[in-house]
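Action item from last week, closing it out:
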Amino acid sequence: MAQILAPSVQWQMRITKNSSYLTDASSMSSKMWSSLFRKQSKKLTARSSAKYRLLAVKSEHGTINRMEDLLNLDVTPYTDKIIAEYIWIGGTGIDVRSKSRTISKPVEHPSELPKWNYDGSSTGQAPGEDSEVILYPQAIFKDPFRGGNNILVICDAYTPAGEPIPTNKRHKAAQIFSDPKVVAEVPWYGIEQEYTLLQTDVKWPLGWPVGGYPGPQGPYYCAAGADKSFGRDISDAHYKACLYAGINISGTNGEVMPGQWEFQVGPSVGIEAGDHIWCARYLLERITEQAGVVLTLDPKPIEGDWNGAGCHTNYSTKSTREEGGFEVIKKAILNLSLRHKEHISAYGEGNERRLTGKHETASINTFSWGVANRGCSIRVGRDTEKEGKGYLEDRRPASNMDPYVVTALLAETTLLWEPTLEAEALAAQKLAMKV
């Protein structure tokens, strides 16, 4: 698409009267267009205050798609330099920010990249009188938008003195995952990221009638069809972008509420799980930006009899994956029950609107677990019960949770934290009664 400047109202009327010019625009030469606009510009010379707007005209010939050609241009044969997109988490704890810089040659490891800085006062992360925040490169992914050797760089943020800023949740997570006890257990995570697509101007779910509602839930989950599936191209584009980037994406599906989707990342080990989810979220933000659709990770985007959006986190350790692992899982669940409030407080903003005990959730105030029960806080699969080993699913995290926080907290509670004997005995009694 090329953008051609034309005066607004009067010029539109003239084009309408002479619509034959537009009916076969693709066959017009660039000289014909130039001649047409020269004639019109003479008539409009005296109208220096005329308002202009952009019109788009398709053409298979000439110079129409120059911007698209430049965006797709592969510069690899002409320079060793690459573009690195530095990505970090902003002041809300859920917004992703990024900016680009040129690197002299391709790199293979974050340690080869320089630290950088940004204006923290513009992201809600530093005061104006001392606004410099330093970016530390931590993980590299291939850039599906620019292609070639260009990269996406997941960073965390520090003060100039080298202290992690308050919104840097990766730093503490890295400390937990480097603990020898945690390293020895090789924690695996499989994260199910749900999200909702909204229409741009009205902020109403994609596919829903503006100001109205579709039919009740039921036909939409994993569905096909123009009246049941809304946003599949975005989901598919995101899937391929993740595979290209090197993100360990394992699947996608349409969700229960129309206009809502899910992708899964994992199994990932330790800190890698958070890096991959944050990069996948960034890709999704960029793809919905290009599609003119709004992405929301709100855990309950539509009130009423509609499913919310979660980020279910599947978790296992070396001990739970080996023979006798089911008993280790039960001990982990016991620990999780004793720290239920700590986990809930770290599992996402607005989660109380989602965890109501309805729509495949447990109550936010009550801890529970069960086999194959999606209405529990912690679900254990039938296969895990049958084989006596495997993983557990924490169904409490909201769609807007920080994956660094959730993954690290699960490891800390189940591998590093030890309850008192009295508390352990009491919790075991309560859980036995519920089961």
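Closing note: The chain has a mean pLDDT of 87.
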